[in-house]
Each structure stands twice: as structure tokens, then as C-alpha cells.
């Protein structure tokens, strides 16, 4: 096996096994900090040894075993644990495992730790991206637009708080799940978004490992709570978005806007499943929540054979419904994009300009303004807006798209 093949095997192992290794170590040792550091050391050891020894037949088992040994070595070095009996139990693992509870999946149990309500929402997302998604601290810092040292401190404090509060490594009981699941859905949605449009300039523009894991975990929650409309809505939203992945980035690495995508390249099976979930929720006649409305908007887009067939009046009506539930300026911005197709770019621009105070640091705000100004023939202002969007955008494919649109202005 060549050195390139070994590097690729290590990359794939990190994508597939990071969350499993961290989850397994968290369950065994009861400490997120030990689990993360030992997992990182195991992957570093793989980088050193696999080129010489070869890739093991079961990389996940090799990594978990190596990480466990690293964790044991750290515990021994610390020499701070008075309860030697407990340490021996961790070292030899003779006791039968605790019942898994409502969700028999280590990674989902790990998410419920990272998403504990004792933590602030931004901290939950950051911790989940690190522990479950395997993103580096610099990648997460870029996603949050904060300094790397500040993000590292935030994650460290979160792990310390979980340890000090003795938050258990388990999923809430079935009767407690509804009260906890909304926070988990919010985090999964943000993890999916990081994969759908990665924010780091040094990462792939799309992270299918993150989108795939978010979908997998949402499916597990859906199986547990089949009657929950927002779980179904989030799953539908993810599926309808993921269905377009193959058409979203060109061969040259440039983002392809929805209007320009080859709809024949969309995943028909995912589209059909997403549409089915949306129809099922509509049939219940229960007032939809945020994720269900977002899924319905995506269903309208993916139902059109051509962008010219899009029912924009329905899209705007759905956004009107969403605005009543979520007064986020980003929702208002997305609504304005739909309004431009229905009522024209001038009406939409007036709505977008009212958002400047809250979205001045958001690249999509400037990209939207640039497109509307371009359509209105105001080239100089459009160029300035594109320049600002390019300055703020972190995704490489999106930056390439914005530069091309700007340069087309002449």
C-alpha cells in the first residue's frame, strides 16, 4: 500500500471512527477530556505506525484499543485518584455494562451529553462539533467567527462543567425525551449546516461526513419519536437538502446556485423520502413547527422540474408562516430572496436593506444585496456588495462563485 493510500485510509478512519472512539472512551472512563485526548493520541499513533505496519484489518477496533491504552496511561500518570477500586474497574472493565436506555447508540448518547441544557446553546454546538463531528478547534472557531484560543477555552470549560456536574453518559428516559429533544435537534441542524456549507477555508466546501452523521442521528431520534412533527420535519429538511449535494459544487470547485443546478443529478430517492415525510405531516392537520415549514419550502423547490416552474407564491406564503414562529433576521433575508422572484428585486432590496443593522457581518446578507443590485442594473453598488460578501465568506466554493458573479459585472 502506497503512502498516499495510507494517508487516505487514515483520513477515512477519522471520518468514520472518530465519534465511535470518543463515545466508547467516554462511556468507559466517564470523562470527555480523557476521551478526546486519548482519541487524538490514537490517531497520531496511527499516522506514525500505519505507514510502516500497514493499515489494520479493523481500523476502528485498533483505534479504540490504542485510545483506551492511552487513556489508562494518562490516568496512571495523573496519580490523583484516591479511589483505586474505581480505577481498577476502569482498567479491567470487569463489570457488566450499564443498560443503554432509550437509545442504543453510543454516539447519540454522546450528543445528549454535549447538548445538556446546563450548557449554553453555542457551547453545545461547539462541543458537539468537536466530540461527535471531529472538527478541529480552529475549524469550529472559524464557524463561530471567534478567536481560536477563545473557542478552545469554551470547549474546555464545557467539558469541565460536565465533569463537575457529574452529568451522566446516558440518554434521558423515554418520558423525558420530548423535553430534551428540541435542544438536540437545534444542534443537529447546525452540525448539518456546517457539513452542507463548511465555513473553514482549509476544508472541503461540503462535508458529507457531517451531513451524513446528522442525518443518521436524526433517523435514530425519528425511530424513537415517530409522532414528533419537528423530528420528522428536520429529517425531511436534511434529506431534501442532502439530495442536491451532487449538483451543488461544480467540477472546478465553484458553488452552483439552486437556479443553475442540474436537477437530474439530484438524489431521487432522498427527494421522494423527504416529500413523503412532508406529506405525512400535512395530513395530520397539526400546526407545523419551524423545521416542518423549512422542509415544506424545500419540498416546493424540489418539486419543480425547472426553476421557472417554482411556485414562488407558495414559498413566500410559507416564509410568512415561518416569520410568525421565528423572527430571525436570517429568515427575513431568505424570505426577501423569494419575494424578489414574486414582486421584483426592488421590493426585495427594500426589505433586505432594513436588515443591515443585524446582518452587516453576515456574508449572505451582502451576497443577496449584490445579486439584487445586479438585477437592478446598479453595477458599482453590486460590485461593492460582492467585495464585502467575498471578504466575509469562508467557504471556498462560495467564494469562487461570488468572485465569478462580481467579475461578470465588467
UniProtKB/TrEMBL annotation:
This is RNA polymerase subunit sigma-24. Keywords: Sigma factor, Transcription, Transcription regulation. Residues 180-280 form the DUF6596 domain. Coiled coil: none annotated. It comes from Phytohabitans flavus. Belongs to the sigma-70 factor family. ECF subfamily. Residues 111-162 form the RNA polymerase sigma factor 70 region 4 type domain. It comes from the Bacteria. The keyword Transcription applies. GO terms for biological process: DNA-templated transcription initiation. One of its GO terms (molecular function) is DNA binding. Residues 20-80 form the RNA polymerase sigma-70 region domain.
